[in-house]
Design the sequence.
């Protein structure tokens, strides 16, 4: 059902929402508190004339007027939580493949993002999206064994 809704929404010609972005930042300057406030971040491209000194196309900016990853997003960085522990996870979401990659988890001791592969928890690992995806709340993903990517968990699709 979720995937059929996804594909039907792709081909609908509805008026698309205009998203507003906040102040762009490099990855290393985006903290958990930023993601808790704005759980969707996109690459800060297309406004090169507004770039700060030192900024490039790898910086990301928060979506400030939505907590839904709509079909307008080809890709975005989103906040998720590990299902069993609520450990915060930041991941790149590819809308075309409905896949997560570039996974990091929040290390509360160091107050910094760490590579997800170094997180020592048993498989299978399930992640729950904080923002809704195509208007579906709490989308569940299962992390691949190598801990480098995650895909939508088939049993969560109605």
Sequence:
């Amino acid at each position: 059902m979720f995937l059929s809704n996804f594909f039907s929404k792709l081909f609908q010609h509805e008026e698309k929402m205009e998203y507003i972005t906040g102040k762009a930042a490099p990855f290393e300057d985006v903290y958990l508190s930023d993601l808790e406030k704005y759980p969707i971040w996109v690459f800060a491209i297309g406004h090169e004339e507004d770039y700060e000194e030192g900024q490039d196309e790898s910086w990301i900016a928060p979506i400030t007027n939505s907590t839904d990853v709509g079909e307008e997003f080809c890709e975005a960085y989103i906040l998720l939580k590990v299902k069993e522990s609520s450990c915060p996870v930041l991941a790149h979401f590819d809308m075309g493949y409905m896949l997560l990659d570039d996974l990091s988890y929040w290390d509360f001791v160091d107050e910094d993002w760490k590579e997800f592969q170094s997180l020592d928890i048993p498989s299978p690992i399930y992640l729950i999206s904080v923002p809704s995806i195509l208007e579906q709340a709490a989308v569940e993903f299962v992390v691949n064994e190598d801990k480098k990517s995650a895909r939508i968990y088939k049993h969560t699709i109605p």
Q: What stands out?
A: Helices lie at 2-11, 32-37. The two ends are 5 Å apart (CA to CA). Residues 2-11+18-156 form one domain. The chain is about 10% helix and 30% strand.
